[in-house]
Each structure stands twice: as C-alpha cells, then as structure tokens.
C-alpha cells in the first residue's frame, strides 16, 4: 500500500580492471562512439562507485 524509501545496501569503488572492462564493453556496444565520447561518459580520473539496491 505504501512504498518504502529506496536505500542502498552497499557502496564499493570500481577497481581499475573493472573500469577498463566497462570502457571496453561501452566501446563494443556503441561502435560509433569515439574515445572522447567514452571519456566524457566515464572520465579517467573520477572515482566510480557501484551501489547495490534490493528489489
């Protein structure tokens, strides 16, 4: 009846290897995207966090 607020269970930093894998996946899925476009989406010096939420 009433919706509960959404809360993250855990937060983790994305490791360097996982960051590279994510960039590679983006390039595979979007072949027309240039390296500049991918760097705009996932800047090289910015910390990326992974959050897990319950369903």
TrEMBL record:
Gene3D superfamilies, from UniProt? 3.10.400.20
Q: Which Pfam families match?
A: Pre-PUA
**Which superkingdom is the protein from?**
Eukaryota
What are the Basic and acidic residues biased-composition ranges?
1-10, 25-35
Q: Which InterPro entries match?
A: EIF2D, Pre-PUA
GO molecular function: any one? translation initiation factor activity
- One biological process GO term for this chain? formation of translation preinitiation complex
Q: Which residues form the Pre-PUA domain?
A: 2-54
Which segments carry the region annotation Disordered? 1-37
The record's listing under PANTHER family reads: EUKARYOTIC TRANSLATION INITIATION FACTOR 2D (PTHR12217:SF4)
What is this protein identified as?
Pre-PUA domain-containing protein
